[in-house]
Design goal:
There is one protein chain. By secondary structure, the protein is mainly α. Helix content is 84%, strand content 0%. It contains 2 helices and no strands.
């Protein structure tokens, strides 16, 4: 994680154009992966919430 932090904080001015492009691509890939993981976690939490809601409704209906 330290390397990623260094890359994000780097101003890229001291690097060649090729290196700048590579670093920009790596940052994009890293951010895309992070966003995908966050989205998957949100979807999992929502699925868990809905499943719990259905269980509670099922219990309520069985109690009638």
């Amino acid at each position: 994680m330290e390397i990623l932090k260094d890359i994000e904080e780097d101003d890229l001015e001291a690097y060649s154009n090729e290196a700048k492009q590579k670093l920009s691509q790596l940052k994009k890939v890293w951010n895309d992966e992070r966003r995908a993981k966050e989205q998957a976690l949100r979807e999992q939490e929502e699925a868990t919430r809905v499943a719990q809601q259905l269980i509670e409704e099922n219990k309520r209906l069985k109690g009638r």
